[in-house]
């Protein structure tokens, strides 16, 4: 869950420790509106109309931005049936804006299923008392509803009824990266080095897609809880409530009220409200650091001087001899030191103080893929060597 921040003059900064409960997220009533934000709330006040619905399987491996949100409209009654009336048994998790429930639909026809069989979805029910929730909800529909990419969670539809705002997503069976890195228990086995690389590459590809779209999209809320994992640990970004269109060609940044999550937000943005595409790269660097170290971006339970992961870890990243001391003990040393050093160097570049010194997300993807390829080659070489040893041992003359 997030530790969200707003500019101090307008919002009470909400802090939480690593284990704290959900915190509310602030959202601006004066936020600049981008191209996607022209979709007004009245556009949503359509009835669910046609009863024949199905999920179109539009998959665009390289991603696609649609002209209009391609979403289903659900009635509250349908979502109540699908989630067993939002009962605790269907509860999946809670964030700053509301609770998330598991829901069931009869296969791809999207008729609610009472019997917890059929297609599983995730239903986010926004806290009904929050104006901020409305803005977040609209932004989610405007951005995510139009985006299609293998590394972005699919938004299937929404409901706006009786002062209730709900969003229906594809279900991500492995939950959030945050849970895997920091929660303990049998449901959260430590992630191996290979899986960490796979997840980092998937998430980086999601951001790279947003950044390289014609009208760049700044995600603004990159953090481990917003990286969700499918059954194969493919990473998908969720939560576009804070997303913004990037600057026009003549500008390097947009200026906006400061909002985001403590520990992940780029220093230039916190200091000036200037938001760059590269501000997302900083957030990515912080998550990479969390994945390497197994430590949260911000944790008030750590000893004094170690609360902020970036401040604490930077000296380790700068010194090659110290990097390995930073690595997550849950990896049990099962990673190639060369790959770890390269990932640490990349992290350092991503969290550079000046946005222009950070790599683009395309470059990040490329470097991570190189680390992964080397990793794979050395694994294959080891397997080949072992096979060779077994074969030669098999042929070797028996000891007298
Ligand atoms: N599509 C989904 N499939 C499966 N589980 C989900 C899905 N979306 C959310 N969840 C679960 O619900 C939890 C809460 O998600 P939510 O996005 O509301 O909050 P958050 O990301 O933890 O915090 P924040 O509000 O600061 O973004 C997630 O951590 C995850 O475990
Ligand atoms: Mg989230």
TrEMBL record:
InterPro entries: Kinase-like_dom_sf, Plant_Ser_Thr_Prot_Kinase, Prot_kinase_dom, Protein_kinase_ATP_BS, Ser-Thr/Tyr_kinase_cat_dom, Ser/Thr_kinase_AS. Its EC number is 2.7.11.1. Residues 378-400 are annotated as: Disordered. It is found in: Cell membrane. GO terms for cellular component: plasma membrane. Gene3D superfamilies: Phosphorylase Kinase, domain 1, Transferase(Phosphotransferase) domain 1. ATP binds at residue 125. CDD domains: STKc_IRAK (cd14066). Residues 86-371 form the Protein kinase domain. Keywords: ATP-binding, Cell membrane, Kinase, Membrane, Nucleotide-binding, Serine/threonine-protein kinase, Transferase. GO terms for molecular function: ATP binding; protein serine/threonine kinase activity. Its main location: membrane. It is an enzyme of class 2 (transferase). Belongs to the protein kinase superfamily. Ser/Thr protein kinase family. PANTHER family: OS01G0588500 PROTEIN-RELATED. May be involved in plant defense signaling. This is non-specific serine/threonine protein kinase. It comes from Vanilla planifolia (Vanilla).
